[in-house]
Each structure stands twice: as structure tokens, then as C-alpha cells.
Write a structure and sequence with these properties.
Helix content is 81%, strand content 0%. It is globular, with a radius of gyration of 21 Å. It has a single domain, classed as MFS general substrate transporter like domains (Growth Hormone, Chain: A, Up-down Bundle), CATH 1.20.1250. The protein contains 19 helices and no strands.
Length: 422
């Protein structure tokens, strides 16, 4: 076992410094993400009676992201990319602090806190995507995203269990006077501390800024337009995936301790599987992996709709634990490959496509979140959590056919010697 671990470490060390630094930075920040995604929703639900506030927060996050992509594109002409990347990580802690200081959770206060979080994500993801594009090649992107999703899945085991157990222990043992919100304050401080460490680490990568050139365009190659349509479908699903598990678990099962425990189930197997997939698969396997991820999402939503009980929620979350990383490990390398092709074909800055892709995601997220808010407030939360989720999953599954079309076009745009590898 030790020999195998050593071999894998040596394989990791053989990759370029920039790629290794980016992966390690994302590992540290990966400890933060489960707290942000999981317990912000739980905090809002604990301190308000309006379940739609969770989605309003998420909608504000999604609004802030493309806005910051545009701001970041301009700032890259004046500041090092590592500095902007680290600034985004630190902003996540600021957003959580702003949420915790609200005396009453109303729509405007939650929206502002979400907008700040969106600014954080915008700086983080826009720079991360560009750095991933420029520190990897198509041949090692399966490995890169396999390792990255392995990191995120592993932290998705440890962090929800530890944080959920801590919140539950505060309530059970009466620590801090039994004030559970104090536990959230401590978790927020931990988020800020880890973000600070990750922001220092990223400066070791010697990363280069994109070339100075326009990044806002309205006409693109047909291949990119297809990728943009796929991004919109992905965004529709994201509008539900980020918020639905938290709300379903708190509706059917209860406390945050249970929430963390359920999120940790089966994640060990998922993490190992993803690392192996990233290590042994090649570009030609991406479409198959994406299809499996889509099918698991539909299966989980179908089980939730059919059972709509504690068991149904557990099965849905387990399916999602496998589906989300499978979708990511296939989607992102294909996206970067398309950017490689169209940026050379159109002679444009790669960041132009990263920014434009985010706009496609935003349109989909806006539709997904908007649908939930309308159903929850004007129909019923029951319909929003039981039936609409299944509809979203089926729509997302249609994205596999769009993905197949994109992959076929990528093959046609490749030199003949490279086609056999796709």
C-alpha cells in the first residue's frame, strides 16, 4: 500500500509546478466549500420560516458571479492573477460574516450577503478556470479534474461530518449557553482562516496573466454556440442541485448533524472511484462518464419523487454524491478543449470564452432558481421539492445529446493524428 501511495505521489510530482500549486490551493479551499454550500442554507432555514430565502441567497450568488467575471477581466490588466484569485477566496469569509451579523433574515439582507458570496465565487472561478486552462493540456486534464474532484469529494466527507457534529454537540451539550449560532460564528472564522492560507499558497505558482485584449464579444464560432447551449442546460440543473439536498434533508430528516452524516455516506467510495477514473481514463471516455452522471441524477430524482420520504432523500443524496463529480470530471475537460480550438480559430483571448461561458451558466441558473421560487411561493414547497426536481433532472439528461454533438464537432476540428484519442 505504501509503495502504491509513493508511486502516485511521484506521478503527481512529475507534473508542472503551476498545475501542482493550483491543485494544492484548491485542496485547501476545498475545505471551505462544503461549509459554504451546506451550512449557509441550514443557517438560513434555522433562522427563518421562509424556505425560498435559501434560493434567493443562491440566486444572488449566481448574479454576482458573471458580474465579477466581467470586473475580473478588466482588473487582470492591472493586477497579478494570483492576487485576484486569493482575494476571491477571502471574500467568502466576508460574506459569511455579513450573513451572521444580520439581526433579521429578510429578503434584502439575504440577497446582499449572497451577492458578496457571488463576488467571491466570481473572482475564484474566473481565475481558477483560466489557470486550469493554461497549466494543463488535454492529455492530462482527466487526471487534473480526477485529482481535484477527489480532493473535493474527500473534504465533502470530513467537513460535513465534523461541522455537523460540532453544531449538534453545541446544541446537545449546551456549550456557549446552547446558542447554536455561536457554532456558525466559529465555523465562519475557520472558513476565513483556511481561505487566508490558500490565498498565500497560490502565490507560489508563478502564474501568468492572460494577454491584454478585449474579452467581450457577441458573435462566436458555431462550435462555441453549442457549448454555450450546453452550459445553459448545466446551469438549470445547478440552480436546483446546490440548494435541493439541504432543503430535502432538513425537511425529512432534521438536524445539521444528520445532514453532515448523510453527505458523508458513500463519499469514500466516490472519492476513490473518481481518482481512479482520472488516472486511467482518456479523452475518449468523457462522453460515457458524462452519460453515467446524467443517468444517476435522473435516478436519484426519480427515487425522491416516487418515495418522497427519508429513504428517498438518502437515495437521492447518494446518487448525487456520484453524479456531480462524474459530470464535472467529463464536462470541464471538454469545455477547455473547445476553448483551445475556438480561441485559436478566432484569434481571441481565452478569457473571452471563460467569461461568455459563465453568462451561459447564469441564464440557466436564473431559470432553475426562478422556477423554484415561483413554485415554492405560489404553488407549494412540496411541488418544488418533489416533482420539479425530477423535471430538472430529465431536462439535464437531454444535455447528453448536446454533449455528444459537441464532442463530434471537436473531433472534426482536430488534426487527423489526434482524432483517435477523442
Amino acid at each position: 500500500m505504501l509503495k502504491k501511495i509513493t508511486k502516485e505521489f511521484q506521478f503527481f510530482a512529475a507534473h508542472p509546478l503551476g498545475m501542482r500549486t493550483l491543485l494544492l490551493t484548491n485542496l485547501i479551499y476545498g475545505l471551505v466549500m462544503p461549509i459554504i454550500e451546506l451550512f449557509i442554507g441550514a443557517y438560513i432555514m434555522r433562522n427563518s420560516d421562509d424556505i425560498s430565502l435559501v434560493v434567493i441567497f443562491q440566486l444572488a450568488v449566481y448574479t454576482g458571479i458573471p458580474l465579477t467575471f466581467a470586473i475580473n477581466g478588466w482588473l487582470l490588466n492591472y493586477f497579478p492573477i494570483a492576487r485576484l484569485y486569493s482575494f476571491g477566496m477571502l471574500l467568502s469569509g466576508v460574506s459569511m460574516f455579513s450573513m451572521m451579523t444580520l439581526n433579521n433574515l429578510d429578503t434584502m439582507g439575504v440577497f446582499i450577503a449572497g451577492l458578496i458570496m457571488g463576488l467571491s465565487y466570481g473572482f475564484f472561478w474566473s481565475n481558477r478556470d483560466f489557470l486550469a486552462l493554461n497549466t494543463t493540456k488535454d492529455e492530462n486534464r482527466n487526471y487534473y479534474y480526477g485529482v481535484e474532484t477527489f480532493f473535493y469529494t474527500t473534504t465533502g466527507i470530513v467537513v460535513p461530518l465534523a461541522a455537523g457534529a460540532f453544531i449538534a454537540a453545541v446544541e446537545l451539550n449546551g456549550w456557549f449557553g446552547g446558542n447554536v449560532n455561536v457554532a456558525y460564528y466559529i465555523l465562519t472564522a475557520a472558513v476565513f482562516s483556511m481561505s487566508l492560507f490558500a490565498s498565500v499558497l497560490v502565490h507560489r505558482g508563478n502564474f501568468q496573466n492572460p494577454k491584454r485584449s478585449p474579452f467581450v464579444f457577441f458573435k462566436f464560432d458555431a462550435l462555441w454556440n453549442k457549448m454555450l447551449g450546453l452550459a445553459a442546460l448545466k446551469g438549470v440543473a445547478q440552480g436546483y442541485i446546490v440548494t435541493a439536498p439541504t432543503m430535502l434533508i432538513l425537511t425529512h430528516i432534521g438536524k445539521e448533524g444528520s445532514l453532515g452524516l448523510i453527505q458523508g455516506l458513500a463519499a469514500v467510495v466516490s472519492a476513490v472511484l473518481l481518482y481512479v477514473l482520472g488516472r486511467v481514463t482518456t479523452p475518449k471516455h468523457r462522453l460515457m462518464i458524462y452519460g453515467i452522471g446524467c443517468a444517476l441524477f435522473v435516478l436519484g430524482a426519480l427515487l425522491n419523487a416516487g418515495l418522497y420520504s427519508s429513504l428517498g432523500v438518502i437515495l437521492f443524496v447518494l446518487c448525487l454524491l456520484f453524479a456531480r463529480p462524474l459530470l464535472d470530471i467529463a464536462y470541464f475537460p471538454i469545455q477547455l478543449k473547445v476553448i483551445d480550438i475556438v480561441s485559436k480559430k478566432e484569434n481571441r483571448n481565452e478569457f473571452a470564452y471563460i467569461f461568455n461561458h459563465e453568462l451561459g451558466l447564469y441564464l440557466g441558473r436564473l431559470l432553475g432558481c426562478g422556477l423554484f421560487i415561483v413554485l415554492a411561493r405560489y404553488v407549494s414547497e412540496y411541488a418544488a421539492l418533489r416533482y420539479a426536481l425530477l423535471v430538472i433532472a430529465v431536462v439535464h439528461f437531454m444535455g447528453w445529446f448536446a454533449m455528444r454533438n459537441v464532442v463530434q464537432d471537436v473531433s472534426m476540428n482536430q488534426p487527423r493524428a489526434e482524432v483517435k484519442h477523442l
